[in-house]
Design a protein that fits this description.
The complex is a heterodimer of chains A (135) and B (175). Chain A is α+β, with helices and mostly antiparallel strands and 135 residues long. Chain A has three helices and six strands. Helices cover 25% and strands 22% of the residues of chain A. By secondary structure, chain B is of the alpha+beta class. The N terminus of chain B is likely disordered. The chains are: A alpha+beta (135), B alpha+beta (175).
Chain lengths: 135, 175
Amino acid sequence: MPSSPRETENDLPPVSADELLARFIFQSNHIRGDHSVKQNAFIPYPKPNLSVTRHLGLAETEVWEIGREMAESRPATLHGRADVHASTITTQSLKIVPTATPRNHANITGWPPDKPSQKIIAQEIAAAAQFISLP
Amino acid sequence: MILEMTASALLSLCAVPTCASSETAQYLAAQFGEGRRHLRKSYYLGLGMSRASEELLGLSQECSGDNWDGYGAARITEQTYLQACAFLDALPLGTPAPSVGAEPDGHLTLEWHQSARRTLSVSVSPEGDLHYAALLGPSKAYGTEAFLGEVPQTILDLIHRVAPESRRTGALIAA
């Protein structure tokens, strides 16, 4: 039986400006009482990049499915997700690098090394993000 | 010798660093600190600082193990908690209470937030570095200040810009 071809980074569709990216929230303190997202949720650590899930080609239920899988694997409690448009990221001179695994995953790279610069960028992203509670 | 501490002195807007050396000076510093702690218990003057202190303790305990955010976060150490408490305690009376938070690198945050583009976040590191970032309408401010027992003027100014009522409350208390 022939094996199905594996998708490589080069095969992945490029990220368009209007594409939505989800950052799953596993810490309740990263959400304010008014359901806005704190900058804390977008600080890159321990790697110098930020892990997000592309909405591309996924139904709403499939996006949540990925979040639940992530929560189970950690383990952690999934509280919701913060959605941002790709243009919000690239406006901050960051790059969005899709990866073959896990499904629809991408890394936000190009962060400055110093903490204050990371914080101000995280604030700009948080200001534009929309929090969606876990249904 | 009778030492009198007036309400206006107690309600002074700035914390007094405890670098006193003489017995009298040390006594005054201790009385001053006690007076501040007493006034902090008043919700109006403390503006919720007691609640913020309690939240800081609860959050530090909640995030005392690694990977508390599900992405590999570093734990909040006792040293970071103590630095954040000292910073909170050093805020001038009349300052609105911040909301507290934790960052994945193990820093604690104190946030003054009015809206998406009128917000200030101060990260407290275990070494006592204060990394701040503020969005103020179309402008922004960010940088690092050392915490040496007093709240840096740069950060106080940003608090006043995000929450202008704090300046008025401070002026009323001073009067």
